[in-house]
Amino acid sequence: MRVHAIEAFDDNYIWAIETDNNDRVIIVDPGEAKPVQQWLEQHNKTICTILVTHHHYDHTGGIAELVKQFPCPVIGPDNPDIKTLTQTVDEGKELTVGGIKWQVLSTPGHTLDHISFYTPGFLFCGDTLFSGGCGRMFEGSPEQFTQSLLKLRTLPGDTRVFCAHEYTQSNLNFALKVEPDNAVLQSYAEKVDMLREQGQITLPSTLQLELAVNPFLRFDQKSVISAANKHAGSVKNTSEDVFYTIRQWKDNA
Q1: Quick check: is 133 in a domain?
Q2: Which of 15, 117, 158, 169 has most Cβ atoms within 10 angstroms of its Cβ?
Q3: Catalytic residue among 58, 113, 114, 241
């Protein structure tokens, strides 16, 4: 399976996934139509299916225009705000799209309707998990977001993480405040700085790497718990408390 990044807005990535039909691709979270149309024309492709992780406009805003030009199924979470859906899916649903078998994971926290799409080796997680970070908690609760991240932690370490924004560099700058002595994090941050200086994309990451560097997946590690307690000035024992503390810390950083 080959995956291509289509840049949109200031820092979004729309993902184009080549299927068993070389002329047709799966498009994930098309917030804008124009960059997708340009990419399809350049590569002589059409769309077989659109996958949607959540209702935010920067993930859905291009769908209506795209389906006018390329009539196709639009699959996403059960949310009436996404007017263009042809099929709604939730936790545990198994799909075959483009000859690829997908598992749907419910991953609320950033939004209540958020889902992720997984096939062995590949995770399309929208704004739930970023490289070095996670999405802002707009609608969900700390308990929901923590459970979503715990769910993603159980996937194989070689799973490639295709998130929807180029936030890696800023995320790692914050992660270093939480774990300044994390050698793997230090090395990754240096690599990302070099990639961004060269104008290169930092994604996909891997789950194994994220488990080593991402404080929002490491909320039960002693170093992260200690940093959360020091920042909050009070004892934070539960995973939910630690997660919420570092999420607020980053929001206000």
Answers
A1: yes
A2: 117
A3: 58
Residue 127 annotated to the active site: yes
**Tell me, what CATH number does 148's domain have?**
3.60.15.10
- Residue pLDDT, tens place only, 118-129: 999 999 999 999
Task: Catalytic residue, from 110, 113, 114, 241: name it.
Answer: 110
The verdict on residue 235 lying in a domain is no
Using one digit for the tens of pLDDT, what is the confidence trace for 61-93? 999 999 999 999 999 999 999 999 999 999 999
Render 117-176 in DSSP notation, one character per residue: EEETTEEEEETTEETTEE---SSS-HHHHHHHHHHHHTS-TT-EEEESB--HHHHHHHHH
Active site residue 55: no
Token digits of residue 247: 């999420």
Residue 150 lies in a domain: yes
165 is catalytic: yes
> Quick check: is 54 catalytic?
yes
Of the residues 29, 113, 127, 241, which is catalytic? 127
Q: Is the pTM of this model over 0.85?
A: yes
Residue 62's domain comprises: 3-171+203-213
